[in-house]
TrEMBL record:
Keyword match Signal: yes
Residues spanning the signal sequence: 1-22
Keywords: Signal
Source organism, top-level taxon: Bacteria
Protein name (database record): DUF560 domain-containing protein
Lineage: Bacteria, Pseudomonadati, Myxococcota, Myxococcia, Myxococcales
Amino acid sequence: MVRSFAPLLLVLAMLAAGRAPAAEWEGALRGTGRLLLDTNAPRDFSDQLTPSPERDFALSLLGSAEGRGSFEQAQLVGRYELGTRAYLRYQDENTLVQSGAVEASHALGTALGIGLEGHAKDRRGGSRSYSDLGTTAFLEYAPDVRLALRVRAGARRFVYRPDPTANFGGPEVGVLGRYRFDRRHSLSVFGDWNSRRFGTPPRARPPGTGGGSGLLAGRRQDAALTAGASYTYRGPLALGLTYAFQENSSNSYGETIRRHRVSANAGVRLPWRVTLLAQGSLGIIQYPDGIYLSPEIILVEEDEGQNSLSVKLARPLTESLDLEVTWGIWSTRLPRNSLTYTRQVFSTGFTWRY
């Protein structure tokens, strides 16, 4: 799917370049290798009666490439990532993940621009194997360096291999706005809406809950909404704070979900050229029909849990090689049955940049 987007966007960028004699090209490569200790390798929920989750060691490799071509009035940007994780004991949790995006834009004067973007993500292995594909057209408005606004519209297709009933597709629209108060302070607002059409009929209410049982006529349809705002500070301390509200409203019983999520990230330079990066999030999830988790509820956002905290220490060894030590914890609690999900990951490794 990524290959099908690339030729179209490349042709658009070449045509948009017009009489530009040449393009300015720049790019970057990055590779990371880590050895991990995972305290919940099978990603199991547990309670007081079940045994503690099993630990396992894993090797993680991640490579990424970015490229940018700037013409007189056009720009072409491409990104690609390839990552794999291999466990020592729980080999069923081994994963291979690829993601890529290509974007071409053309300036319409000094403040307006139009463009096309295509993206794809493919995950194989483990308990979650899926493909997430999309393409959008966008309009940008940036009258100066302080203000930037992007409005987009396109289509999305999600394919979940273990359970085809979770497959969906449909149109989506979105908006992203950013305002920079000065060099250090900026504020962003964002919103996305996606109409998800499934190939299966919606589920009716079970007996005793005010409706009939079984499946209803017609097809299941969901409306997924995301809206929020984020604040960023860049100074001696890099700081970011984001609030997001997500709602998946469905005509199928048990598939509606609402979530409030607050996340923060910070970065600071320490002595001996050490950089400290921290990231955390808190979430509140509501299930109006009670808890009936279908696969895509926990798949689409790639969440490890409602709440999370991660810390990374990095120190350069050379101009292009860093030593990294990381720790992260993710947790979720289901209120009705007291099941909990907790997972910690400790890792150490190296990152190479070119």
